Amino acid sequence: MARHGVIAAGNMLVDHVHHIAQWPERGWLAEIVQSERSTGGAPLNVLLTLAKMHVGLPLQAVGLVGEDGDGDYIMAMLDQYHVNRQHVQRTPSAPTSMSQVMTDPSGQRTFFHSPGANRLLDIDAFETLNGEMKIFHLGYLLLLDSLDKADEVYGTRSARLLAQMREQGFETSLDLVSRKGDPRYKPLVLPCLPHLDYLVINELEAGEFSGLPMRTAQDKPHVENIGRAAAQLLAAGVKQRVVIHCPEGAWGETPDEAGAWIPSRMLSQAEIVGSVGAGDAFCAGFLYGCHEAWPLAHSIQLAHACARASLLSANAIDGAKTLEELQLDIAV
């Protein structure tokens, strides 16, 4: 029987999203205009976006949350969207991870993050997963302290986990966190690449890994360097597809298919409500295309449509659309 469905694992948190009147100078006050709570982190954002696409895929979450109100909220959201939470464990040892997200009038977001229970998530949480599922997605590397630890055989524990998932027949996918100047990018990313089918990252993360400037002096995408970074990642071991995305478009490349730049249909600043979760929405659309064996360019076009829908909402989930609505957006 053909495998079917997506498992998403890793950082689970609650975003407390605040719209502020302006970003203040240090030591000064800024007014919070509006606040709301939403789920955050790669697994939840990807799974709930896929759920709202109404495509009928089996969906499963793997993670660790605290025994607190934010943990209750995550569990309730998974139930609401019919995501299997059998492997979402609860711990009394740490609070549920959370971020305070400040969104200024331009839609730019700034995160203040408390890692909480995510620091404790380790390989034993991934035993006895449903072997009928097709794709295993892990995020975010560099924010999963136990999985980011060194491993004598595989380099890191996250690399060991991804190798185990591939051995069990899953197609594997990875996302990183955007953390400028973090010296751990290469030491933590490189060991994982030979055990990956799909790598979907933004231009900031690609720049940290490759050391190449991803934007020109005119603040435009440096498409040539983005392509070079993708080629580096493929050469380092990614098996099927590497995608590097930014607001203006995305570069997609495979070992057997020349790289190509797929532009996005940009929104104006006035249209953007918030950018929280737009990268995860992009990833959800892309993974659906991979799951359905769509051509690379078509998968990226759907990913752009998912990200565009996300930008029209303050949080990571409310803007998500059905596949039918997304396909109409692609056709525009």
Which features would summarize this protein structure in a list?
332 residues, alpha/beta, UDP-N-acetylmuramoyl-L-alanine:D-glutamate ligase, 9-stranded mixed β-sheet, 4-stranded mixed β-sheet, 9 helices, 30% helix, 28% strand
Walk me through what this model shows.
One of its GO terms (molecular function) is kinase activity. Pfam families: PfkB. Residues 30-321 form the Carbohydrate kinase PfkB domain. The structure is a single chain. Strand 14 (249-254) and strand 15 form a beta hairpin. This protein has 9 helices and 15 strands. The chain is α/β, with parallel strands linked by helices and 332 residues long. It has one domain: Ribokinase (UDP-N-acetylmuramoyl-L-alanine:D-glutamate ligase, 3-Layer(aba) Sandwich). It is globular. The relative contact order is 0.14. The model has no long low-confidence stretch (mean pLDDT 91). Strands 5-4-1-8-11-12-13-14-15 form a 9-stranded mixed sheet, with helices on both faces.
> How many beta-strand elements?
15
| Topology order in helix (H) and strand (E) letters | EEEHEHEEEEEEHEHEHHEEEHHH
Q: How many structural domains in the coordinates? A: 1
Q: DSSP strand (E) fraction?
A: 25-35%
CATH class placement: Alpha Beta
Helix percentage: 25-40%
Instruction: Give the strand order of the largest sheet, numbering strands 1, 2, ... along the chain.
Output: 5-4-1-8-11-12-13-14-15
Low-confidence stretches: none
Q: Which shape, going by the Cα principal axes?
A: globular
Mean pLDDT across all residues, rounded? 91
Protein structure class: alpha/beta
Organism: Kosakonia cowanii JCM 10956 = DSM 18146
Pfam family, one: PfkB
Protein name: Sugar kinase
InterPro entries: PfkB_dom (IPR011611), Ribokinase-like (IPR029056)
